[in-house]
From TrEMBL:
GO terms for biological process: diaminopimelate biosynthetic process. InterPro entries: Amidohydrolase (IPR017439), Bact_exopeptidase_dim_dom (IPR036264), Peptidase_M20 (IPR002933), Peptidase_M20_dimer (IPR011650). The Mn(2+) ion enhances activity. Mn(2+) binds at residues 147, 149, 183, 211, 413. Residues 238-327 form the Peptidase M20 dimerisation domain. It comes from Pseudarthrobacter psychrotolerans. SUPFAM superfamilies: Bacterial exopeptidase dimerisation domain, Zn-dependent exopeptidases. This is Amidohydrolase. One of its GO terms (molecular function) is metal ion binding. Its cofactor is Mn(2+).
Length: 445
């Protein structure tokens, strides 16, 4: 990404292109001049006033989901929703990301040490055929917002509006990070490479992300956890190489199938015997492929597995323990094995102080009863971990179980997963409050 600091606007201007850059400044509309209190009650009240607009955007994004790094329509909709705000817009080069800087005008705008807070929302969908039956269901075959990223995007757009109304009370800058390809665990690293963390002109001082969940039964409840919050995610692809033959004469072949089965069981034994139960590792084999006929021993057999770890130490150990085990089993049976270990997303680790701060803002906005501290890490993975590895911050979960869903509500990534629109106000307000309160603290430090 590219960024330039020098910009100006004049009355009647809709947008300005920064010299030597593709960044755009969108001129502030008249409503920006209204006086707004930064009080918690007013933030929540203003978020409620935006509810209809946020819902409309969310439903539009849900109808037209896009996958991976290239989300051209989604990017277009986000840009349109932000077009009348006083933002410095930077578009991604290798992906259809949107980075936006809101310059607070309180304090000394020329100070080089003005604080910056980053807020992130992911935008991509999943390759699923939607089965929810909602009236705004996906209109694209085998594409679905089944992980709530349409809610995240809409809430951050809403927060951009609330923050723009309060920019004269912000003694610092806010970076809005609209990210593709979270489901590939690829978007955040690419945006970091393109400069999102320094988009305001200096390294962000704090970063916050939010994620909704479609099941849990506590609609509107926020959940946080200090320290290790989500797992690292690696992938394992294994091909056992034998020699095919007739099913009636296995002694004349080198059957890879029982060797594959032994490897799969061996991985489970390895996890329980070689790894600390208090630093867990999860190996889930989700793909097995071998042969086409019951009376033919195939030349090869394959399996693939998802690997989850909660520490860098366990992850490093997996990368040596797995090849040792699989090579040993193959050798014992006189076969060969091809092992492909793919390193994915890192462990998500939140900052203790920033997580406590996030909990405080939840209490201020909604009351202590709307907050829950997670007793253990979650099993999923997040590429926001790459942001938190470089900038202190936190990641907040929001229960969006449909109010009419009951205990059988489908979880994220299900073709039947639905999310309650009522939480859009909550997420919008929390994004806003996190930026407002954190900038105030940083400016006063």
């Amino acid at each position: 990404m590219e960024f330039l600091r020098n910009w100006s606007w004049t009355a009647g201007s809709a947008a300005h292109i920064l010299e030597g850059s593709q960044s755009t400044i969108c001129g502030p509309p008249p409503f920006i001049r209204r006086e707004h209190s930064v009080s918690v009650a007013r933030i929540l009240e203003d978020a409620r006033e935006l509810h209809g607009d946020i819902v409309q955007l969310r439903h539009d994004l849900h109808r037209h989901p896009e996958l991976g790094l290239q989300l051209p329509r989604t990017q277009e909709k986000v840009l349109a929703a932000l077009s009348d705000l006083p933002l410095e817009i930077t578009l991604g080069k290798g992906l259809t990301s949107v980075g936006a800087v809101l310059r607070g005008t309180a304090g000394d705008p020329s100070a080089v040490d003005r604080p910056t807070v980053l807020l992130r929302a992911d935008m991509d969908a999943l390759p699923l055929q939607e089965e929810t039956g909602v009236d705004f269901a996906s209109e694209t075959p085998n594409r679905m917002h089944a992980c709530g990223h349409d809610l995240h995007t809409s809430m951050l757009v809403g927060a951009a509006r609330l923050l723009a109304e309060r920019r004269h009370q912000l003694a610092g800058d806010v970076v809005l990070m609209f990210q593709p390809a979270e489901e590939l665990l690829a978007g955040a690293p690419m945006m970091i490479e393109e400069g999102i963390l320094e988009l305001s002109g200096r390294q962000a001082d704090a970063a916050y992300g939010l994620h909704v969940f479609s099941a849990g039964g506590n609609t509107g409840r926020f959940e946080t956890k200090a320290g290790v919050m989500m797992s690292a995610a690696d992938a394992l692809f294994v091909t056992v190489i034998g020699r095919g033959g007739h099913g009636s004469a296995p002694h004349q072949a080198k059957d890879p199938v029982p060797v594959l089965a032994e490897m799969i069981l061996g991985l489970q034994h390895m996890v329980t015997r070689q790894f600390n139960a208090h630093d867990p590792v999860v190996v889930s084999v989700g793909m097995i492929k071998a042969g086409e006929a019951i009376n033919v021993i195939p030349d090869t057999a394959e399996f693939g597995a998802s690997l989850r770890m909660y520490s860098d130490e366990a992850r490093a150990k997996m990368q040596t323990a797995i090849p040792r085990l699989l090579n040993g089993i193959a050798s014992a049976h006189g076969l060969e094995v091809d092992i492909n270990y793919h390193v994915g997303g890192r462990v998500t680790v939140t900052d203790e102080a920033h997580t406590a701060f996030a909990a405080e803002q939840i209490h201020e906005l909604f009351g202590a009863e709307r907050h829950h501290s997670l007793p253990a890490p979650l099993g999923g993975s997040e590429d926001f971990a790459d942001v938190l590895a470089r900038v202190p911050g936190s990641f907040i979960c929001l229960d969006a179980t449909p109010l009419a869903g009951g205990p059988d509500a489908a979880f994220n990534h299900s073709p039947r997963a639905t999310f309650d629109d009522s939480v859009l106000v909550d997420g919008t307000a929390l994004y806003t409050q996190l930026a407002v309160a954190r900038l105030a603290q940083l400016a006063a430090a």
